[in-house]
Amino acid sequence: MKQRISENQGSDQFRDQCGVVGVFGHKEAANLTYLGLYALQHRGQESSGIVSTDGKQFYQQKGMGLVADIFTKDRLKRLPGDAAIGHNRYSTTGASELNNAQPVSVNFAFGNLALAHNGNLLNSEVVRSELEAYGAIFQSGIDSEVIIHLIAHSRGSTMLDRIVDAVQQVCGAFSLVILTDDGLFVARDPYGIRPLSLGQLKNGWVAASETCAFDLIGAEFVRDVEPGELVWIRRDGVHSYQLFPKVSPAMCIFEYVYFSRPDSVMGGRSVYSIRKRLGRQLAKESAVDADVIIAVPDSGVPAALGFAEASGIPFENGLIRNHYVGRTFIEPEQAIRHFGVKVKLNAIHDILNGKRVVVVDDSLVRGTTSRKIVKMIRQAGAKEIHMRISSPPTLAPCFYGVDTPTKQELIASTHTEKEIRRYITADSLAYLSLDGMLNTAPGEHSGYCAACFSERYPIVLDGFEAKQLPLFESAELQSKHMAPSVFTSEVCFESKVPTKKQTE
Fold this sequence. Notes:
- The protein is of the alpha+beta class and 504 residues long.
- It contains 17 helices and 29 strands.
- A hairpin with a 2-residue loop joins strand 12 and strand 13.
């Protein structure tokens, strides 16, 4: 039996993920990290933190809230040194509290270490339980801390050995920046699910979740960190290692659809241009006679422009967004219908009155916000309202670092397109097809994780545990440039307390 569609099922968007930044070899490392985090604010608004080093000790500042509110001039002055890492958090594991803010930093037998992580480790609970059985004491509820303990418990003889050892024992999505006394380590999971890029400064290097961070600090984009790659940035240069066998990449397709800033570049392509192409493809698949195209701002604008170009129907700013709405607001004592949406969006009567309107949005998750927007547009005098979504129906949750509703809460998993159209009260509703989306994105179909649309997960889930696909039964570390050693490792099939790696 289909569940009843509720008016109050929560947000109608996937929640943002996290953003990471690392800077090495620049005298203003902490300041540049702060600016990088500012550019990545859209990836997480719950907490933010920076750890820096002057070569003698590590310094840390963290807080709850937005980057600009946390890092005052006085706080930044407490972060000296020419190397730093930073993190913006939106929680996917662990409560939203200061204790769970990143980066996570420790001092142990091998020196100082700090880590920031974007993604989600699927086997973290299993590994955590085993580490606790061997005496590990965890200070937070986040999965990222598991990697810290794996490094500390490793029997590797160097910091590089230990980081490789730890990374090869975790499953899931991870883009990591790790600051040590030996330099800055940058790593990405074998599938490259979460993005990570390298840039170069006049004096130093930078890594960040998105290239828009490079633009703000004046860094030159060099390349994306490859799936399964570990990059070690040291005083004597940059060294690269491939930790896992090559497999078909599976970067999150939702980065192109919604998550990333449109001015970022991923996979060698502008996010903005891809979103416009998605809109053009949507117009080809679901043409409709209309007078005006409008977008649900801000993320729906590029797709709406593409739809307008392909259809020949003019684009207008029919919905205006209030960019100064905070995380909470005080509602009036007298109830106002759809008050929450009206605080954030307002319809322009002159543009919509008497018109056949196409409304383009990037996704439709629960349908609650779309329903309110359609009613707002109708109240502004629209004669017809045709909802167009520049991604396929969202059928399944994400397990790779995005906070998503349960499958039962996703309206497309429990209702037909016709039922959804009736619920949101639109005259018509159409989604972009899965093939249309994948053909529009750069690369082949196998190059992306589209599990939230297809329910085909690149990393196999087995209850609360996760096992990598069979290609990962063994892994060999091979240096691309100046490899100091070679390791072999069992990866992700069984979570074991770390043992010494065999070294050639």
